[in-house]
Write a structure and sequence with these properties.
203 residues, 9 helices, 4 strands, globular, mainly alpha
Length: 203
């Protein structure tokens, strides 16, 4: 969010169409391609909030928070003699990642689970505290995300627990809260958790 609005908008084509256009010439981006961004919760002076259309193109938003005390001690000692980044080596090549992405798309999703995803998204659109609910793009990315989780878990099919596990980081950042709800302390994540509690799985 420290880039200018024009620079931010240039990411939209790359994130949605996997290509960039410069002076009328279109160049496809290499595969795999992904965008990872960080946003600090302080020092907003001189920053530009990401527009909803761009936030909607990020698959997930994860809040890191602080490490536990024991983990923080480990961090201190991990840099005792040298920085651990110096020991990082590749574990996958690009071709393997593309193969895994193809395998993820082959993971089966029962139509009842797909319906459950749509019901969750629809519930955010009609929530009293929400001004703008989850878009169809959000539903599609949730669909892909549960496939990915099932794949990582070693399954070739999705289950409702996949949805419950990834719904909050996949959907919350796509919502826009009503002003009153926003200043009452309600968080977008709370809305998604509430919707998860209220919408029956139906499987």
């Amino acid at each position: 969010n420290r880039a200018s609005p024009r620079t931010q908008s240039s990411l939209l084509e790359a994130m949605s169409e996997r290509q960039v256009s410069i002076e009328g010439k279109t160049t496809p981006l290499p595969a795999p391609f992904l965008v990872i961004a960080t946003q600090n919760p302080i020092e907003f002076h001189g920053t530009y909030p990401l527009p909803e259309a761009q936030l909607d193109r990020f698959g997930m938003r994860i809040n890191l928070g602080y490490p536990g005390k024991d983990r923080e001690v480990d961090i201190l000692y991990s840099q005792f003699h040298h920085h651990p980044l110096e020991d990082v080596t590749p574990v996958l090549d690009a071709a393997t990642i593309v193969e895994m992405q193809t395998a993820v798309r082959a993971v089966k999703v029962d139509r009842r689970i797909a319906r459950y995803l749509v019901e969750l998204a629809d519930a955010t659109r009609h929530h009293s505290a929400v001004k703008v609910g989850c878009s169809p793009r959000g539903t599609l990315i949730l669909f892909r995300t549960i496939q990915a989780r099932a794949f990582v878990e070693g399954r070739d099919y999705c289950i409702p627990e996949d949805v419950k596990e990834v719904a909050v980081p996949t959907l919350a950042h796509r919502l826009a809260l009503e002003t009153k709800a926003k200043y009452s302390g309600l968080q977008k994540e709370d809305v998604v958790r509430e919707v998860l509690d209220q919408v029956p799985v139906g499987v």
